[in-house]
């Protein structure tokens, strides 16, 4: 049996609704769930192979998107949240009981400061932006995936229409480089 990339990808990708205006995330506890409202759809939704992102049981990748932090609000049981790793750039707020990551926030100077990272599979609403690409694909090797299986992993992503990267997508890498250049005072030339 082939390994699960992620439940939102394994059986084909469901197209999102560009007019979708947000919804609610809930942790996986059977009672007293942490509830987070999102007042917009996500952008740059993608499969992520890094070791820090929350993944459903049995999945090799997470699926994570971003939205402006002002569009994220904890509605219930905020006291159950804790930051998983306070030294990480993304402060991942997870439920202390079930372990689901409800949102990740960047609190320091960073190209993505002002954006929160969320897992839309924690919502039962339909319309969220579908995964757009797969990032940090090689990182699953560091977590124990056999390097000999990487061609098959990349082929599986390709079969559902997702480009794979060992970093982020080119537009996101351009944003990081632009932030870094501006911070260093680089003057851009005309192309």
Helix segment tally: 4
For the record, give the distance between the C-alpha atoms at the N and C termini, rounded to a whole number: 49 Å
Radius of gyration: 17 Å
Portion in beta strands: 25-35%
User: SSE string, helix = H, strand = E?
Assistant: HEEEEEEEEEEHHH
Structure classification: alpha+beta
The percent of residues in helical segments reads 10-25%
Oligomer: single chain
Overall mean confidence score, pLDDT:
93
Q: Which of globular, elongated, flat, extended, rod-shaped describes the shape?
A: globular
For the largest beta-sheet, the strand count, sense and barrel status come to: 7 strands, mixed
How many individual β-strands? Answer: 10
Strand arrangement in the largest pleated sheet = 6-7-8-9-4-3-10
Low-confidence stretches: none
Quick tags:
191 residues, alpha+beta, 3-stranded antiparallel sheet, 25% strand
Give a nutshell description of this structure:
This protein is of the alpha+beta class and 191 residues long. It is 17% helix and 25% strand.
Give your account of this protein's structure:
The strands form two sheets. This protein has a seven-stranded mixed β-sheet with strand order 6-7-8-9-4-3-10, with no helix packed on it. A three-stranded antiparallel β-sheet has the order 1-2-5, with no helix packed on it. The chain has 191 residues and is of the alpha+beta class. The chain is 17% helix and 25% strand. The protein is globular and about 55 Å long. It has helices spanning 7-10, 139-142, 150-159, 170-183, and strands at 23-26, 35-38, 43-48, 62-68, 72-76, 81-83, 90-95, 101-106, 115-118, 133-135. Strand 7 and strand 8 (101-106) form a beta hairpin. The model has no long low-confidence stretch (mean pLDDT 93).
């Amino acid at each position: 049996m082939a390994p699960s990339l992620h439940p939102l990808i394994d059986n084909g990708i469901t197209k999102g609704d560009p007019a979708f205006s947000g919804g609610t995330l809930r942790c996986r506890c059977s009672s007293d769930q942490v509830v987070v409202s999102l007042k917009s759809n996500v952008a740059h939704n993608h499969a992520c192979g890094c070791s820090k992102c929350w993944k459903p049981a049995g999945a090799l990748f997470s699926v994570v998107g971003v939205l402006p932090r002002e569009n994220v609000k904890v509605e219930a049981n905020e006291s159950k949240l804790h930051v998983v790793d306070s030294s990480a750039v993304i402060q991942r707020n997870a439920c202390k009981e079930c372990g689901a990551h409800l949102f990740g926030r960047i609190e320091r100077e960073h190209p993505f400061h002002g954006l929160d990272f969320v897992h839309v599979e924690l919502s039962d609403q339909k319309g969220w932006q579908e995964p757009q690409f797969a990032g940090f694909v090689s990182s699953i090797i560091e977590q124990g995936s056999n390097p000999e299986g990487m061609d098959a992993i990349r082929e599986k992503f390709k079969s559902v229409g997702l480009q794979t990267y060992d970093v982020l997508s080119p537009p996101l890498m351009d944003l990081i480089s632009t932030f870094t250049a501006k911070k260093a005072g680089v003057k851009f030339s005309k192309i």
